[in-house]
Amino acid sequence: MTGSPHIPPSQGAVPSTEGVHFALFSEHARQVELCLFESDKTATETRRLHMDRGPDHLWTRWVPDLKPGCLYGFRVFGPYAPDQGHRFNPSKVLADPYGRLLGRMPKWNRRWHSLSSGLKEESVSNMRPDGADNADCAPLCRVVDPEFDWQGDRLPNTPWAETILYETHVKGFTRQHPDIPPSLRGTFAGLASEPAIAHLKSLGVTAVELLPVHQGAEEQRLVHSQLTNYWNYNSLLFFAPDLRLAATGDPIREFREMVLSLHEAGLEVILDVVYNHTVEGDARGPTLCFRGIDNRTYYRLDPENPAQYENITGCGNTMNFSHAQVRQLALDSLRYWVTDMHVDGFRFDLGVVLGRDENGFSTDAAFFQAVHADPVLSQVKLIAEPWDLGHEGYQVARFPDGWSEWNDQYRQTARRFWLGAPDHVGLMARRLAGSGDFYQPQNRPPRTSVNYITCHDGFTLQDLVSYQRKHNEANGEHNRDGNNDNASCNHGIEGATRKPEILKRRTRHMKNLMATLLLSLGTPMISGGDELRRTQRGNNNAYCQDNSTSWYDWHLDHGKQEFLEFTRRLIQLRKSSPIFQRDRFLTGETDPDSGLKDVAWLKPDGTEMEETDWHDPEMRTLACLFTCPNVNQTLLARGSILLLMNADREECLWNLPSLPLDGNWEVLLNTETIENRLQTLHPADTLYPLAAHTLAVLQWN
């Protein structure tokens, strides 16, 4: 290695008191040059240094007397042979895959492309490399000082069974909050502010699941349409927090201070991470990093035509997790965010990609084995989006032990049940009970199922009950994008209305869905803003709407405030009862000590459901009697919960069951009646009227 015998264990730029060590992996390169820049305004590099090839295809260079803050990139030389999978082009300065901080904010430029006719309809194999130098517009990286005083940060370590996830966007949550200082809105510092944390704490959630914060870049189509990739599922640097989410020029410090503040409030931080593809897009996309460093290593190529990519992500390319370097990159990135940035877990976008090799998806894939064996990563929360767009891409319940999964079957079942769909009572019971039909055969606990009604992708909860169809015209794709199958209902008028009866039906529908979510076994995830009745005006794919369509509206009228209070009460009910924090599946068997069952599924007459009832397509009512376990898991009558669900068009009279201990049924909530009008106590063996399309929760006391 030029200049020093010391080789740090890490790829990327590693500073010390004497200088900076640089290391870059490229298996197929013939030559690599380190490019140093004076500033982000410099049109070309001021120094270009040869890097030495060492073992394991690692190119290294030691630069004495260099300090944190310096800007750098790489020029990588090698064959330009798209038909063999190689796209080397030394006229392009490339970002460091291990870069900790972006040094120049990328603005789309034609010279990002490595193809001479990259935008024309021509065979990629026949295109010549573009010789235009991009040094003045390349997305450089900046060497950073890793030191930070964590002030004795203590991770909340919330048990899975007690976890309540809140999916949100850093900018969307904070951009319009009137109590957050204007200079902090839309940033990590804004999410760390007292008003933001106060809302999360008063709501009662235990973890924020942040939409991607890795450094991203804009896409050509969106730039030309004057739009932006707001969701940021478009990563450029897997180690760097996005500059656009920082109030200061130091997003690393700002992100760490945000984590520290959230931890002090007892809130965990889960990152939505996108390792399945990159911002470089398809074969005609820009060359910013991986494509120019070693295209054949980093991407899955079409075996019949290596000039093209296997696009099983729908985003133009797919990271190649069959290669050890790609797995190492992802593992090192994850470990960095845990050890250096103190995050508490990850949600993996299109997680099936991570478990694919040339033979398809496997639970025993090398990446999963490495995570399981890692003493750091095996201890954090791991959540998979268990699908991609490839062959056999739907892999719900196929991820390894220790992982949780987004359960889209929960979403679809709950939505359709409350629309009165036939043949859904049995499905709804399974989802309420933690989806044991999926996860119990693998001996995975109920928390494996991440239950949700809505998420960032799709209608908000308010829009789900206000729109019959999507309205995505603002996305510039003639309303072709977004899902057409939403299981939504507008209750008589498409979109906004002031008609009291329609507003009442919509509110009750929303309450039914939110109550179902928060009173089911499994791990609930609230889509941020649903508690505020946030609307996107019918847009169910607002990925490019960095505006009031996506930003939370914090001006709460009476209806919004009332629904917020309703959601808070539900969360407190969930937290107060051990019924909903079980780490074992329900059995329906009689406990020999108490003579009680942990769950009984009841018909309106109070008798237990029979096999024929489960298969009755016209059945649209369901009652669940959950008995309460004590610390020794012995079942107790007192504290038992009776959940009544009527998705029918007519009122239903429920015969309230009796329990061995003297007491009464106390009505904790009824989605048809406001709280101060509840008749709170009802004796056993009396009839309880439940209005059409209504849910009620009663407790035995």
Automatic annotation (TrEMBL):
UniProt gene name: glgX
Domain Glycosyl hydrolase family 13 catalytic: residue ranges: 167-574
Origin species: Nitrospina gracilis (strain 3/211)
Top EC class of this enzyme: hydrolase
UniProt-listed GO biological process terms: glycogen catabolic process
Region (Disordered): 471-499
Entry's family note: Belongs to the glycosyl hydrolase 13 family.
Keyword hit for Transmembrane helix: no
Top-rank lineage group of the source organism: Bacteria
Molecular function, one GO term: amylo-alpha-1,6-glucosidase activity
Protein name: Glycogen debranching enzyme GlgX
Bias kind Basic and acidic residues: ranges: 471-483
Pfam family, one: CBM_48
SMART domains: Aamy
EC annotation from Swiss-Prot or TrEMBL: 3.2.1.-
Keyword Protein transport: no
Record keywords, A-Z: Glycosidase, Hydrolase
